[in-house]
Amino acid sequence: MRHTAWLAAFMLLTSAPAQQAPPPIQTPWEGVPEPYRELQRLGAGKLEIPRDLPQWRAQRERVRRIVLESLGERPLRPSPLNVRVVSTDQKDGYRIEKFVFDNGVDSMAPGYIAIPDQRQGRLPAILTMHGHGSSKENMFGYQPTSQNVAELLVKRGYVVLGIDSYFNGERRGTGPAGELERQEQRSDQEMSLFKLNLWLGRTLWGMMLRDEQIALDYLASRPEVDPARIGAQGMSMGSTRSWWLAAIDERIKAVVGVACFTRYEDLIAVRALRAHGIYYFVPGLLKHFDSEGVMALLAPRPFLALTGDRDLGSPPEGMNKLEEILKQFYRLYSRPEAFQSIVYPETGHVYTEEMKQRMVEWFDRYL
Predict the structure, then answer these.
(1) Closest Cα to residue 205, out of 298, 282, 105?
(2) Rounded to whole angstroms, how far apart are CA atoms 105 and 263?
(3) CA 213 to CA 207: how far, in whole Å?
(4) Are 197 and 203 in contact (CB under 8 A)?
């Protein structure tokens, strides 16, 4: 299965300027065949909204277990870590170390860590995650796009770490078909990894999150870092990884997700399942609840969502529902201010300078 021309156009929006004409909005459920209009009839479940904090605490572990089970088997992470620093690049006021770690299963994961030159004590840190078709080079300024955030953060006193995810950056051509997948359409390695992991009882999404947890292990182990003050941020595929990672790993203390604030039922309603790559689809989750079940696990930790109302992968109706549901969970903890969703009008799938400023202010406030 290959990306359609429609999806290729969607991917181009990742680095498109904010002023580019956004795509038209489709009326929900228009054109959706009748059998798919009632997801409950198909077997979809619904998250129970707790009436108070004790009820949620009793329910939360079951929700978390369902989320973890949907990811399939995730082999134990390497311990001790097998990380090697391969080079150092001195910048103005900070340095970037390039490293590579063995994920202990199927590949080596290269990454960068940016560290301020001037520091007193241990510093807060950000795990940054790139979008689909992007790479660590984009985030750390070696191949600048709108996802270039490392310098902005490191010059404000954060340690910043990011890796190439499966089928991106230097990991292209390292999947089951090797160099053949580097030469072909970029979805080929993604698809072969998706298929192979299913055979092994795993999911590609679960293995991607496992790699981010290894990166988090390394980040927390660095002597420059305060492991109690680690945040996660990303755009698009990186945004989705940020809130999924925080849902399964309590070490993430604050999250900023740019684009892909997505509710799955509403994605179906606008006929846009094709707006997301195959990588993040996992079995069984929708039998129990929609994406609010994953995001609810973040509460009461600070979560900021920044999304355009013309983002093809984030239908506005779904964002409205997520906002209302998540506000209820944060009110349970008496921390309504710790969740914020900003929806930008007439804006597509982008990471603007204003969004970056909001991101930095959020981490400054909560880390």
Answers:
(1) 282
(2) 32
(3) 10
(4) yes
Instruction: For residues 294 and 66, give the distance between their C-alpha atoms in angstroms, rounded to a whole number.
Output: 9
Domain spans of the chain?
71-366
CA distance 323 to 33: 28
User: Residue 360 pLDDT more than 60?
Assistant: yes
Tokens of 304: 């900021």
Instruction: Tell me whether the omega of the peptide bond preceding residue 23 falls within 30 degrees of 0, making it cis.
Output: no
Quick one: tokens of 309? 């109302």
Identify the three-state secondary structure at position 144.
coil
| Of 152, 168, 163, 220, the residue nearest 356 (C-alpha) | 152
Is the preceding peptide bond at 300 cis, omega within 30 degrees of 0? yes
Q: What is the tens place of the pLDDT at every residue in 166-202?
A: 999 999 999 999 988 886 556 789 999 999 999 999 9
For residue 189, report the phi and psi dihedrals to the nearest 5 degrees.
-70, -40
Give the whole-angstrom CA distance, residue 268 versus residue 367.
36
Greatest alpha-carbon pair distance for the chain in Å reads: 62
Long-range contacts of 175-178 (CB under 8 A, 24+ apart): none
Among the listed residues 363, 153, 356, the one whose alpha carbon sits nearest the alpha carbon of residue 254: 363
Q: Which CATH architecture has domain 71-366?
A: 3-Layer(aba) Sandwich (3.40)
Tally of residues, the chain: 367
Locate 349 and state its tokens: 């799938």
**Nearest CA to 118 among 92, 89, 148?**
92
148: number of Cβ within 10 Å:
18
